[in-house]
Amino acid sequence: MKSLKEFIEDHRNSLPLCLHRMSNIQVREAEQLHAVKMGPSRSTKEIKEVQFKPISKTSYTCD
Amino acid sequence: MVLILSETNDNSVAKVLEWLTSKDSMYIVINCDVPVELISLTLHRFVIRTEGRIVDSDNVVACWFRRGPIKLKIDMPILPVEMNNSAQLETQQSPDIFSYVKREANCIINYIYDILENKRKIGSIRASHFNKLKGLFIAKSVGFHVPGTIVCDSYSKILSFYENKTDMVTKPLSEIYVGFEDGVLQMGYTRKLDSSDREVPTFFPSLVQELIVKAYEVRIFILNDKLFPMAIFSQANEQTKIDYRNYSIEKPNRNVPYNLPGDIVELVYEFMRFANLDTGSIDLIKSETGEYYFLEVNPQGNFAGLSAKCNYHIERHIAEFLTGNI
Description:
Helix content of chain A is 44%, strand content 6%. By secondary structure, chain A is mainly alpha-helical.
C-alpha cells in the first residue's frame, strides 16, 4: 500500500497546491506544541464533570 | 440558563465554565460530537435530551455557538428483507431513504438554531464555515489592504496574473489539512511557491496569494465591540516566517498585547458589521512598509493562547456577556 507521500506525489495534478508539500511533525512534538499553545489538556471525563456537576435546585445548575 | 454548543474536548469552554461557576450561573453544554434526541419541537420552543440531560429552550437565556453543528440522533431501521430482494433497491433505494431522513433531521436542527438565534448570543452556526474569499472581498471593500489573490489550476495562470513580479504563497481555501502516518502528522500550512512547483503544470484549483513581507503579524480576537489584539513576531524564525502556526518549540515566537491604530480598529468594526459577525479571530500582517494587510477571519477561532499570552482573560469576558453582566 502506498504511503500518503507517495499518493500525493502520484496525484499532484489532481490535488490543490497546499497539499503538494506538507510540514511533517512528530505526534509527540505536536502534543508538546498543543500544550504550549493551549495549556495542559483536560480529559473528556474531567471536562464533563465540570460541565454537569449540579450545584443547586434544578438539574441545569452547576457549581 | 446559558447554553453552550461545543465539543467533548474543549479547554476554552472548560475555562468559561469555571467563570460561569464562580458567578453561580446555570449552564449546560451540548457536545456536538454526541447526537441529541428531540423530545418536542413547536414554533417557539424545543426540548432535547443530550447525554441524559434535558435542554428546554424556554430556560435558555443566552447561547454560545462555539462549535457545531448539533447532530440529531437517527435510529434508522434495517431495511425489510423483502426489499433487499432487489439489487436496485438495496444499492440505490436504501441510501436515498437514509439521505431523505438526514434532510428531515437537518430541517429540525436548523429550526433549533433559529430559536437559539433569538437569544442573547455569541457566534452563529451559520458563520462557522466563513468563506476565505468572501472575507477578503469584504475586507477590501471596507478599506483594508489585501494581498493579490487568485484561485487557479495552472502555473502559467499564476505567472500571467502576477506578471512574474512577486513571490507567492499557497494556502488552503478551507481548513489546514492534517494527515497522519507512521506517528507523523502532515500539515498543509501556508507555504511559499518555488521552482519545484513549476514541475506540475496543472493542479486542482488552488488559492495563491502575493507574499507580503511582514514586520510582524497581528491576531485579533473580537467579542462584540471588544478587541483583543496580539502581535506575533514570527518573521525572524525561518520556520514561522511564512505561517506562524508552524510553531517552533526551541525558538517560540514572541507574542505581546498590541495597541491597534484607531483607523484599523474602525476597519475591523466595519468588517465585522458587513460580514455579519459578532465574534471571530482576524489575522493581519503589518508589512515592512507599514500597511496592515487583512489575511482572514475565523468566526470560531481559538483564543486560548492569545488570552493567556496577553493576560486578556477572554474567557471571563465571554462568561460575563453570557450572564448579562456586560
